[in-house]
Amino acid sequence: MRLPFRAQNLWLVLLSYGFYAFWDWRFCSLMLVATVLGYLPALKIEENLDTNPKLAKNWLKGSVVACLLILGVFKYFDFFIDSFGSVLASAGMTTGLKTLGIILPAGISFYLFHTISYVADVYRKHVPAAKDFTEVALFLAFFPQLVAGPIARSSSLLPQCQKPRVVTEEMVHRGLFLILIGLFRKVVIADTCGAMADNVFSNPAGQNSWQLLLGAIWYALQIYSDFAGYSDMARGSAQLFGFNLTLNFNHPYVAQNMSDFWTRWHISLSSWLKDYLYIPLGGNRKGKARTYVNLMTTMLLGGLWHGASWNFVLWGFIHGIALVVYQGYKSLNIRTPEGAVTRVINTALVLVVVGLAWIPFRCHSWSQTASYFGGLFSGNWGTDFYVLPTVALVGMLSLVDLPQLLGKSETTALTWKQAPRLAYIFVLISLIVLSGDLRGSAFIYFQF
Amino acid sequence: MFPTYPFRAFIRPAIGLLGSLLILEAGLRTKLPNRLLPQPSPYYSEAVLLRDKTLSAFKKNVGEPEVVVIGSSVAYTNVNAEILGKGLGKRAFCLGLPALAPGSVLQYWQNHWKAMVPEVKTVILVLRANDVLTSYDPKDDSKLMGSRIERGWTDPSEVSIVDRPGVPSLRIRDYYGALSKSISASRKPLVGTSFWNTDFGNQLQDGKMSSGEAESIRANPRYKSDALPVLATKTNWLKIVRDLKGQVNGRFLVVYSPDFGGAWPSSADAEQWGAEICRSLNTVGIETVAPLLNDRTFNSTVTNYEDIAHLHQDAAAQFTEALVQELKRTQ
């Protein structure tokens, strides 16, 4: 039986809420509130935009503030109370303020950002307000991207909720292949790297510089493979339902500069921050100094988006500084020789900055971060330069990324002749089976 | 009209997946995986993988082991394989693993160790009093076999964690996870300490129990001598050890390892338990040795122990010397 597409939408909404309820059914109501906060204001904004722009703007502000309030309460309340208490305590004062021990709802940062982008896009007339509540509900709750993105833009995903979708054989094959690639990234690379990185990060004081360097490399491999793997699986799953989700990763570890890195890493977040934060702040239109301030502000808030921790702010700070330095260097118009050597050096520089920034991102506290950096730069390199696991894992990563890079398409292997294509798929399946972790492990970005 | 969903587009990938799994299953049934791949999943704990490397190095440098010591942690802390080998004039190696119930020891021997030491002539199983009280349910074997059987003690939550559906005879099931565990375990020589601290498969202890720790050990009421016949017959330890003997081509004997004296209501209880366990084994045709069982000074000296059951390395050396003498006497 084939359902009309509106019934398909309703069915997908129910399935998506069911999917979310598996984690905690109580927070389905929060998602419903987020949907209402998008649906109703959007209608009001559209209704008043031409006749009463001030009222339309107030509806926009109301919706955005409500979303940020929810985010503030569920994600940041305890953090700021804690931080405030610590500051006063360091001055010898006590507050008596207590944290509430609030549970962080899975994917809250993702679906509230969906809501904000939707009302903002309606206000900017980039999309018309949806009249059908189910369409907005599906846009927010569509299960493949619900808990860890990609952060869908209303101009891209909402229209797909508003018309019959066509699923072709090619989409099915592409979708299944993306799921296979994502599973490979997660199971074979991310989980293995995670087991190794955990060992180092759990006791940085007990490791020498070489071990700490490898720990940072393993975590860099883990977080990329974990998140890109999830994004691949989400996009592959969506394809099976006739949806196209935005590309979220485009080989970030071959970026040529920090600016390039942010066009390749978590693309849906970086473009969201650019469109809804950096550009409204003035972007690069108000002079150099203001551009740098805007960059820093965007990256600091981008860091805080990941979680209520000063470590994430430090991560954002490092990226902000790196972007400012790069923009400053670019404005000097210094000519650099072109060629493979330059490209390799550029990539290496980006990897050093990104790799160092991952350290506070992975650490749980300032003291752990300080201990890690202290050990890393202690100069105690040890005598055992055992690198085989790292080489093996980079090799595994190359197995997926290299064909994609060379073929300039993430599903390039599907265009190969039958024998190499089947052999390639067989190798991927075999490695997944042989590497599979019995208990499974959560995706890193579920916590954000 | 609404577009037809192309269900037939799933047919080829499904056939491809099934075909891949069948080819993989067939491939894992050849001898090639033994050479190319790490040990299958039931044996993928880091301790096992690291010891397999130690054993390979032993074989390369010393030769195939002629005597092996098996059992739980008391095997690798209390019997020093280097001293044992020198004393007997044979190549000895220790294969004990942490927290193995007797049933798990049997599974390990059947499925892993036996193939690892093809030329072994003597197998020594180290038992302690608690081993005969383990409520090891044989029906859990299949669940534990498919996973981390080194967790074969009595925590039922572990069983639920490790249980997974599937056909037990599938080789894929055994190899599931082996590769990533092997890669992550291979970082051990680099990050953190190596689990085995001798070239002979031992993890000798250099810590000594303090008098405070010794005082905190209370006499186990189950260790009263008149409780043994009742408790020990409720478990299947004797059958398991008998099954284990049946799996060994060569001499098989059990070494009884005494617990710290403070764990017993009295020294007489301790001695009677040891003697009773040995007697029970003897009645089913299993050779036993109980070095230092009746040495009350040794067993009540706090600094001989690292904790209730594990000896300090100096005491382990003394215990092993006594074992060598017993073995020479009964050869």
- Taken in chain order, the helices and strands of chain A follow as HHHHHHHHHHHHHHHH
Rg over C-alpha atoms of chain A, rounded to the nearest angstrom:
23 Å
Q: What fraction of the residues of chain A are assigned to beta strands by DSSP?
A: under 5%
- Helix count, DSSP H or I runs of 4 or more residues of chain B: 16
- Which sheet architecture does the biggest sheet of chain A show? none
Structural class of the secondary elements of chain B?
alpha/beta
Helicity of chain B, as a percent range = 40-55%
Strand content of chain B: 5-15%
The dominant shape of chain A is globular
What integer value in Å does the Rg of chain B equal?
Answer: 22 Å
* Order of the strands making up the biggest sheet of chain B: 2-1-3-4-5
- Calculate the mean pLDDT score of chain B and round it: 81
CATH homologous superfamily title of chain B: SGNH hydrolase
Low-pLDDT stretches of chain A are none
Question: What does this protein structure show overall?
Answer:
With 448 residues, chain A is mostly helical. Chain A has two domains: 5-161, no CATH class; 169-442, no CATH class. In chain A, 68% of the residues lie in helices and 0% in strands. The two termini of chain A are 38 Å apart. Chain B has a five-stranded parallel β-sheet, sandwiched between helices. In chain B, α5 runs parallel beside α16 (313-330). Chain B is built from 16 helices and five strands. Mean pLDDT of chain B is 81; it is low at 137-165. Chain B has one domain (12-330): 3-Layer(aba) Sandwich (Rossmann fold). In chain B, α14 (267-283) links the parallel β4 (251-256) and β5. The radius of gyration of chain B is 22 Å and the shape is elongated. The chains are: A mainly alpha (448), B alpha/beta (331). At the A-B interface, α7, α8, α15 and α16 of A face α1 and α10 of B.
